[in-house]
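Hi everyone, sorry if this is the wrong subforum. Our group has a chain we'd like a structural model of before ordering constructs, and none of us has done structure prediction before. Sequence below.
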Amino acid sequence: MKSRVVLSRRDMLRDATLFSGTVLACDGLAQTSIASQLQRAQPEELQIDARRLQVAFDLLEHWTTGPQPPVPGAAIIVGRHGKTLPPRYFGRQGPEPDAEPLRKDAMFYMASVTKPVIFMAGMLLVERGRLNLSDLVTRYVPDFTGGGKEHSQILHLFTHTSGLPDELPNNAVLRREQVPLSRFIEEVIKTPLLFGPGTQFSYSSSGTILMAEVIQRISGQTIHEFVRDEILRPLGLQSTGLGSAGFARERLVRTTIPEYQHGSPGNWNSQYWQELGSPAGGLFSTPDDYAVICAMMLGGGQWNGARLLAPATVRMMTSNRLHDLPDLPEPVRRTQPWGLGWRLNHLGRPDSWSDLLSRRVFGHTGSAGNIVWMNPDTQGFCIVLSNYLRARAPWRLVHISNAVAAAFL
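Answer:
Right subforum, don't worry. Here is the predicted structure as tokens:
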């Protein structure tokens, strides 16, 4: 029964002609295509103040210019009502002083902006009656036991309240040894919890990796196959992949790496890490491709005639689900809202996306200098992809977001 559901959907996608008459190739990830591109529009058509938006463009131009710019390269795309302004590109393809100019077909390392896609995959299983958020993790991963793990629910993985650490204690060692994803999963399963499930909030890359393992055990596919077949292909995203395998390496943007990765064969720019496709942060994509995901989410789970998610699913993913956790402290639930995989804006905190966006705005950030947000009130969205370390100057992305948010009329 399990394999029949997956195979029938795969066969349907292989044979059908979708997305404006474009046939999706069986190995479609290796091809560059505009099949997924949203329609272009002018600022006035989208009720966007071009003069105010120019402030964001000027900031990116300033930060990416000069012999040692604080931001080596960046791209931005802004859209509304399923259309976008043309994307803008600034700076260089890598942090090296002699790096080539940023390519117009550049694929950015999305880092943690990967996570919502993984949890989206999990919600597809919820819709199909194969997974419940209230289920114990041990129902699908029986070896996840000890130290209170038997109380962990799937919901805790979605909301970063599982008690699992962000990075594994031996993360740097695993990268240096260039271990496969299965080894990361093994380490997550046996790592101790930091606190009781559902009692605290602590952002967890490890929890996302465990969620990917749940998806693998239910579907019988690798997480890479499931994301490709159930999300990327239905949306026509041919310049997006969980891992870079199949794409030309010259398209991949080289990012500034954190100190602990210097000299490591497993750093973000290594072929090993790029092709590993970690569920916690291994997606590569383009501004145009990820804009389709934004349009789909703002469209209630549908884009270009293809329905990926039900409207009810989108509503639950983009509303504050921390209220469903009775043992979580009230100030956390109120000021650090999280949906199911998507984060909501944290006003009044250093990790806020913008002073002009409400807590209804949802999206995600990435440590490689990325931010994606969607505003259900204006039906607008913004994607900024770059290759600087966000932790060194998180305020840069906030300045950009403020300028963009002010441009929506």
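For your construct planning: The radius of gyration is 20 Å. Residues 1-34 have pLDDT under 50 and may be disordered.
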